[in-house]
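Subgroup meeting minutes
Present: P.N., E.W., G.H.
Scribe: E.W.

1. P.N. recapped why we're keeping a running log of single-chain structure predictions: easier to compare across weeks, and new members can see raw inputs and outputs side by side.
2. G.H. added today's entry (355 aa).
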Amino acid sequence: MSKKVVLLGPYPPPFGGVSVYISTLFEFLKGRGLHLWTYGDEEVRGERVHFMRDKRVGLVPLVLREGRGARVADCTHFLFEYPSALVPVWVLLKRLLGFEWLKIVHDGSLPPRHSKFSSSRRILFRLAAGAVTEFVVLNEEMGRWLREEVGVTQKVSLVKSLFPISEREEKAALPPEIEKALEPYARRAQRVCSVGVFIRDYGFLHAAEAVERLRHETGRDIGLVLLDGDFAREEDYQRQVLAGREWITVLKNVPHAQVFEIMRRSDAFVRAFGLDSYGLSRVEAIWAGLPVVATRAGETRGMLLYDFGDVDVLTAQLRRALAGERARATAEWAEVYRREAEENLKAITEKLFAG
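Output recorded in log:
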């Protein structure tokens, strides 16, 4: 009898890189018998899908009932990246039930945060790190950190998070309510798109300041659409970003397939987050034909780069992007990333269903 393979983590909504990773992977591999253990704001149903209204309360009975001898590919944040009091229970269940723990590390902020962990969180982190069967990382820097700084001795595999876009997502249409919300954005002479949330680490303010400078400098009516994942918010920061900038359009919790369509209606993409471990939206914007201006974090090939918080360089790079000089390079990199996406899907499939 083949081993049960489980994908554990959040499923949209809320929108976010981990949710996109999980939903895309499940879409491609559910025909192979992949199981999904998930949680979120809205219930998910389907064959081999188990939804937890409260992940911390629901996970223990679920793994007791369904987890014996399974291979669990874990994309959560509370068992490793932000270790919680559930870690000792999870480790004990792993020993009792004999399941494999394949930890897919998504959070690029883990290394800098780790140095600020409290003593109790450090204990939980060490316990979790020692219990993982195998790590999968999205970039080489995370793999190096786990081996050299944390000192893990388990296998650490690099499989980037970029997967192909399904035909269903490529052809998704926008619903009337989003079309209506986009009307002011659509009327602008040029349009800039950015993805994140309204907290300082995601750099929405930097993107807004850069667009504002270009509006004054060029006299062009440049619009900015902020696709807000809405999983975190600093109210004062949001007011600071939006105050006096009526040319900003904010859309919350837009489904992944519709994000791709909104990108196609834009002229440039800014990813201002400084802690990306990969940054799926960067590559998806390239697939949508957009020049990408991004921080020096995660995937950066084929993009116009700047250091997080450097609005001067961000403005200069966005000026280049909007001038249209990147069209050929963007198309060439789109093909490179499409080939890599197919290779990544093959690699993670082999990892999940090995043995």
